[in-house]
Amino acid sequence: MKSTLTSPTSGERDGEISAVPFFDQSETFRRIWPEIRSNCIRVLDDGKFSHGTAVADLERALERYTGARHAVGVNSGTDALVLLLRAAGLRPGEEVIVPAYTFAASATAVVHAGGVPVFADIEEHGYGIDPDSVAAAVTDRTRMVMPVHLFDRLADLRGVHRVARTHGLTVVEDSAEAVGMRAGGAHAGLSGAGGVLSFFPAKTLGAVGDAGALLTDDDAVAETARMLRHHGRSGRTLAAFPGISNPTVVTGGNSKMDDLQAAVLLAKLDRLDTDIERRAVLSRRYDDRLRGLPGVRSVPGDLPVRPGENRVVYVHLIEVDDRDGLAARLADAGIGTEVYYPRPLHLQPCFAHLGYRAGDLPRAEAACRSALALPLYADLSESAVDRVCDEIARHLTGGSR
Ligand SMILES: *Cc1c(COP(=O)(O)O)cnc(C)c1O
């Protein structure tokens, strides 16, 4: 976020299109500054920066928005995943199947919860975990499977649940990117034991620092997560969790959400659906402008939406063969892009001990080579989208600037 609160819509300066940053929400802040300010001042006057009312208010608002029985506010999407895995009953050494193509937290959370990540490939068409690859990865130590909803749509939950039922696995969702995404009216994160939300600043609903939430319809999962986020405390005692015998699993920590973050999020939540609609408009414009260009695939417009699902474009992804060349060209032109994700998790050094080799999960590896995220946020202008597309077209058709 830029420091000024009065700058015009991103990518537009005096009618001239200048730089297009990958992410910028200064206009959003300018617009809702009064609400954010009064919410924050209430917290400051109240003096309750932790265990205050803002976090509880946000939790109730998230329950209304998502339809979850419980929303548990925590300090990040990553910790929400750790708490979810532990509260859903993961025991030390048990395996959790996660996609190899996702943000690191999906797999590192498994490690922090005492488990072992096992990697599956993604679908042939799409970026969700492939149910067949999940079935092939099941062992007698497998306890859970974690579909991750990336970019603009849900993973194949129906397919994942079919495999989970066959093998008696618990489904936990990494829905960190999926605020607003629903299937058959049910919000992301609620198809199994629970899911998470991330409020990292660049996410669709972003705080002014780190924050996250756990979503669940399961009373026991919610109660355990609430204790785990606060040292395992239940009143003045440190709880022993029913059915979990290993102390490394029951010991709580500090994963609480700051009330100031909750105050900001409460103000931004009111605008969330408007922002989601704006993202859709801009994403369709990218689709329309990029369609038919040689050597590029505009992912949101290209992949069919599964019946009953709505789409929320958190990231507008394109696939290009010469991804790094295009990213460099756009950077030269002052256009920010991001590579989600540069290296598949099974080939990351921190998981080398698991023994995976290049070629083991080819679709995940290919996605890491060709995917590029374009600027997309509510404050972006149509003319900025056009400028990005013009630059892409010039690059792909061999034109010079
Ligand atoms: C952002 C993200 C997370 C982690 O959330 P933080 O709030 O940054 O800890 C986890 N998984 C996915 C898929 C994400 O995009």
Automatic annotation (TrEMBL):
Q: Which residues carry this modification: N6-(pyridoxal phosphate)lysine?
A: 203
User: What Pfam families is this protein classified in?
Assistant: DegT_DnrJ_EryC1
Provide any one GO MF term from the record.
pyridoxal phosphate binding
State whether keyword Cytoplasm applies: no
Q: What are the TM regions of this chain, as residue ranges?
A: none
Q: From its record, what is one biological process in GO terms?
A: polysaccharide biosynthetic process
UniProt KW keywords? Pyridoxal phosphate
Quick check: keyword Cytoplasm in the entry?
no
> What protein family does this chain belong to?
Belongs to the DegT/DnrJ/EryC1 family.
Q: What protein am I looking at?
A: dTDP-4-amino-4,6-dideoxygalactose transaminase
